[in-house]
Amino acid sequence: MPAQAEFAALKRHLQSVIVGQEPLLDKLMVALLTGGHVLLEGPPGLAKTTAVKALAEGIHSSFQRIQFTPDLMPGDVVGSDVLEKDTGALCFVPGPIFHDIVLADEINRAPPKVQSALLEAMAEKQVTASGKTRPLPELFLVLATQNPLEQNGTYPLPEAQLDRFMLHILLDYPSPEEELEILRRDRQRHFGEDHASLHSALTPAQVMQARHQVAEQYVSEPVEAYMVHLVTATRRLAELDSAMQDVLQVGASPRASLALLHASCAWAWLQGRDFVTPDDVQAMLPDVLRHRIILSFSAHAHGWHADKIIQRIIELVQIPVLDHAN
Questions:
Q1: Distances (CA, A) of 184 to 17, 109, 177, 194
Q2: Domains along the chain?
Q3: Which is more confidently placed, 203 or 143?
Q4: How far are the Cα atoms of 77, 113, 135, 323 from residue 132, in angstroms, in the given order?
Q5: How far apart are alpha carbons 88 and 108 in whole angstroms?
Q6: Where in the sequence is the signal peptide annotated (predicted)?
Q7: Tell me: the pLDDT tens digits for 128-168?
Q8: Which of 42, 61, 114, 265 could join 171 in a cystine, given CB atoms 3.0 to 4.6 angstroms apart?
C-alpha cells in the first residue's frame, strides 16, 4: 500500500535522528496509527524527548512539550480564562494540551490534580474548562515520559491514569556500537557535517487516512479469542499455573483487550498485511499489559516482574491454529 511506504519513509526519518532504539520507533508508529497514548519509561539521556519531537516533525504536525513540575496547575495544561484589558470580558486562552502531539515530560512529577486534568483529554479527546467543553485536535496524541531511577518528589500515576495509556514502553541503554555512532553524529553536527536531511512527506491528514485503514484490518474469530484469553489470563493465573497463585493483586481490564486489538492491527499493517496473526498479538502484548497488572508483595519477594509474568502467560495460553479461511 502506498500509505505503508510513506510510514516506512517516516521510520527512516526517525532513524536519521535517533540511533538504535528500534522498538521505540516501531511502537511510536503503532501509537500514531491508533491514536493510543504512550508512556515512555527509561533513564535520562535515552533520546525520549528527541524521538517524540522527531515524530511530530516527520508528520508536519503541531508539537508541544509540557515540563511537569510539582507546582504545575491544571490551568497551565488545559488553559484558563483571561480578562481582556480593552473589553473587560473573559477570554479563554487554550493551554499547551491543544496540540496534535503533546510530550508530557516527567509526568509523575505533577501533583494528582494536574494528572487528573489529563484524564478527560486522554480518554475523550476534549477538555472542560470554565464550564465549557472544547474538542482537542483530531490527531491528538499524548506521549509521556517518566524516570524510573529518581523517585524523590514524584507522584506515582494512579491506576486510572495508567490505564489511559495504550502502551508502556521500557527503554534501555544503547549498545557500545550504537553509542559510538551517537558520538560520531554529535561531532558531525558540531562541525556542520551532518547530512541526515531525510524528511517524511506524511501529513496529519494522511495519518488519519492510515488510521482508517488500520481500523479495517481483518481479525479472525480465533485471533480475537486469543487476545481475550491472553488478557483474561491475568485474572485467573492460578487456573493456568498453580505456582502463580496470588502473584497478581489486580489483572487487566477489558480496556486492555481493546488496546491489544488496536495495537495488533497497527502492527500487522506496518508489516504489510491486511490481517492479524497470533505473532502480531504476541509482539504487542508486553507493552499493552505491562502497566495494567499489579504484582503482589509475594510476587516481588519471589523474583517475579511484569514482563516475566507476561511471557509466562504467552507460554500457557494456547495459540490458535489458523486455516486458510481465517
A1: 13, 34, 11, 10
A2: 2-172+179-184 (3.40.50.300), 217-315 (1.10.8.80)
A3: 143
A4: 16, 19, 10, 52
A5: 38
A6: none
A7: 877 788 899 999 999 998 877 666 667 778 787 888 899 99
A8: 42
The answer to whether residues 319 and 278 touch, using CB atoms and an 8 Å cutoff, is yes
Of residues 19 and 225, more confidence is placed in 225
Per cent of the chain over pLDDT 90 is 38
d(CA 191, CA 44): 25
Report DSSP letters for 263-323, one per residue: HHHHHHHHTT-SB--HHHHHHHHHHHHTTT-EE-HHHHHTT--HHHHHHHHHHHSPPPPP-
- Measured CA to CA in angstroms, residue 34 lies from 104, 200, 207, 229 at distances of 19, 19, 10, 22
Cell triple for 207: 495519518
**Placement of cell 502484548 in the chain:** 285
- Residues comprising the chain, all counted: 326
